[in-house]
Specification:
Blueprint: E1 2-3, E2 9-10, H1 22-36, E3 40-45, E4 50-53, E5 56-58, E6 62-66, E7 71-77, H2 82-94, E8 98-104, E9 113-117
Parallel strand pairs: 7-8
Antiparallel strand pairs: 1-2, 3-6, 4-5, 6-7, 8-9
Amino acid sequence: MRRGKGGGHLALGRLKAGEMNKTEKAYADRLRALEYAGQILWHKFEGIKLRLADNTFYTPDFAVLAADGVMELHEVKGFWQDDARAKIKIAAAMYPFRFLAVKVRAKRDGGGWDVEEF
């Protein structure tokens, strides 16, 4: 991402389907560690596509099967754009999954991940 004239972020274009950005790769590493530790049972990048309306879909970054058997859909963000937040809220209202937004925490703030449930 880069900054626009007004200080906002400009998207440089989404990677091809199935390709992870740097933040998603770091989160995939975390999920692999959680799976190895038995805290989750399974995960898949872009493994589920949800229909929200005619010609409107939402593909969460990760489908995750938690150790308690609950299917979770994780959205990994460096920052939020309004349309992405709207889609996850709509999906959470429509589907019986646990929806989580995961945002990388700055190293100066201790690193790790901030999690928001919808």
